[in-house]
Design brief:
By secondary structure, this protein is α/β, with parallel strands linked by helices. Helix content is 38%, strand content 18%.
């Protein structure tokens, strides 16, 4: 422990922000009114925590590192509700409605955490996260963008994603190898009933599973050539179409036809 602070551990992917002013795009997007609950994932040194509290939010923080959780309790006292635990084990169904979500997400758990956030429905109207730059690009990408993929479709199915700004690697302690990016989500109901969404997402992952191949060949890997050809013929898809050129509505159409074929 240096300067009264716990050490930062590679095993937890810890890269803490050093300046609260960097969090302004996130705070402005969330716009928590006084007393509104904000779930903060990975508070670490408390830079974002302090900004959320200053904005009037009622913060519930989940910190996986017991040493940093103790430091946060010491710093913020009773002004902060804190759980020392793994954010992958958050009981989302027990959160009060509405709850906003914020966090500096470690790379190794960013995708599963974002998936959990997006599927909470009306319980979470808005969320904003800090992730590695390349992950942020995938979250906001649209058809034709280099970063566009299955994660982009998952986001589009559950939310309107907003690019909130870049964070240079020198803004973290210790500096990571790449820059970061703030992304905000305005959540909305999915385009299909909740029970059908896992099957649709599985279809999307199949479609994007072999990016260098045409959509027909990618789908044939899971469906067989005859079914893939029949489905795409029914929707009038060009033979050289690729998943990365299709938007959510087009993929929903193909999925709908596939159920009937």
């Amino acid at each position: 422990m240096a300067s009264g602070r716990p050490s930062l551990k590679k095993s937890f992917g810890q890269h803490h922000l050093v300046d609260g002013s960097l969090c302004r795009p996130l705070i402005e997007f969330l716009s928590p009114v006084a007393g509104m609950r904000v779930l903060e994932i990975g508070p670490g040194g408390g830079v974002l925590t302090a900004e959320l509290l200053r904005a009037g939010a009622e913060v519930l923080a989940w910190e996986v590192d017991p040493e940093w959780a103790f430091a946060l309790r010491k710093r913020f006292g009773s002004t902060l509700s804190l759980v020392a635990g793994d954010a992958l084990e958050i009981p989302w169904h027990r959160l009060p409605e509405p709850t906003l979500v914020a966090g500096n997400l470690p790379y190794n758990v960013a995708t599963p955490l974002i998936e959990r956030i997006l599927t909470r429905g009306a319980a979470i109207p808005r969320a904003a996260v800090l992730v590695q730059y390349e992950v942020a690009e995938r979250l906001v990408a649209g058809p034709g963008d280099e970063a566009y993929g299955s994660m982009s479709i998952l986001v589009a199915a559950y939310a309107h994603a907003h690019w909130l700004g870049e964070v240079k690697k020198g803004s973290f302690r210790p500096p990571p190898k790449v820059d970061g990016g703030f992304v905000g989500f305005n959540l909305h109901p999915p385009p299909l009933p909740a029970a059908e969404m896992p099957a649709f997402i599985a279809f999307v992952r199949l479609a994007f599973g072999q990016r260098r191949k045409t959509l027909k060949n990618a789908l044939a890997a899971g469906w067989g050539k005859e079914r893939a050809a029949a489905v795409l013929d029914r929707v009038g898809s060009p033979p050289n179409a690729r998943a990365e050129t299709l938007g959510l509505s087009e993929l929903l159409e193909i999925y709908g036809v596939s159920i009937e074929t």
